[in-house]
Fold this protein.
Amino acid sequence: MSIKLTLFTKTNCGLCEEAKEEIQSIKVENNLEIEEIDIYSDDALLEEYQLMIPVVQINGEIIAYGKIHKSDILNAIK
């Protein structure tokens, strides 16, 4: 069974690019299904997350934001 990970991002975001790299490095061995959402696509998301970006959710629960470390994700899925 795959684990649904949602990454809320925005364009021109260095932390978002770092988060993507961290997630990609553990994606396959942890069977992650990744959905990436640009917060500028939805005013409600922009209002909710603009100061937190990037934000990682697993199964609808925020597990990390800002500087994302793969250890945060691994701890949440174990």
